[in-house]
Amino acid sequence: MSLYRGMDRDALGRAYNNSAAVPDAADKIADFLSRSAAVYASFDVKRDLAYGDGARQRLDWIAGPRVGAPTFAFIHGGYWQSRAKEDFAHIAAGPLARGFNVALIEYTLGPEARMGEMVDEIGQSVDFLASCMADWGADPRRLCLSGHSAGGHLAACHRNHPAVSLVLGISGLYDLEPIRLCYLNDKLDLTPEEVAAHSPERLIGPGARTLLTVGAIELPELIRQSTDYAVALRRHGERVEEIAAPGRDHFNVLETIAMPDGPALEAVALAFS
To answer: Would 80 disulfide with which of 16, 147, 150, 203, CB 3.0-4.6 Å?
Structure first.
């Protein structure tokens, strides 16, 4: 039986299984972990700052080299049910080299938290950053909220937060309906009502300028998600820019921000110039 764009549950599972689609995914994650450990060893990191009472309601802060610099806040992926901020700290190297402050945001995963709770937690983390950035020497008017995969979804959910001046979605998920209809929902238990309430593509209103990037060799559904979201934003008159990532898969697309000259990071720097 057809469920979504002609795909049944099994086909949808294959369409969203990024680890299976990238043969050396485990090696790339191992590289991320090694480089992330080096970031913690090399920089003065304020770790596990609590923005809420939950065990995972924490963020790490790395101050840039200059007072009054913009802030690059990053939300990790893992399909809302795995991974942690420490696994992707390697991305901080690029923004720090460009003079940014960096915040690495953690959140409660499913099934412990429902989707709405995760979305709310990111809002809490942004509230916390907004209350602290000036005291930490950061420019409170220049906050880029970014995220990869599930993190891209969570970032997009807060385009309208008053403290967010720029959103960067990296291989994000902007319509949750296919997630509800495949194996990924076994832990998330999304309902149709939650899909409607927390799919950024369905909830577009006035918000921050948005940058979108996705690897050119990613799964077609991941590419479509970003393309369709960009179309929807333009249809509503919102400012959006798509950034090409030739030769990048779902994992090494993060090099577009982890490297100082990465094209996505370059776009963020240009937006704040």
So the answer is: 150
Number of structural domains, the chain? Answer: 1
Residue 4 lies in a domain: no
Is 3 a domain residue? no
Q: To the nearest 10°, report the CA torsion of 165, 69, 129, 75.
A: 70
pLDDT tens per residue across all 273 residues of the chain: 558 999 999 999 999 999 999 999 999 999 999 999 999 999 999 999 999 999 999 999 999 999 999 999 999 999 999 999 999 999 999 999 999 999 999 999 999 999 999 999 999 999 999 999 999 999 999 999 999 999 999 999 999 999 999 999 999 999 999 999 999 999 999 999 999 999 999 999 999 999 999 999 999 999 999 999 999 999 999 999 999 999 999 999 999 999 999 999 999 999 999
Assigned token pair, 20: 């299976």
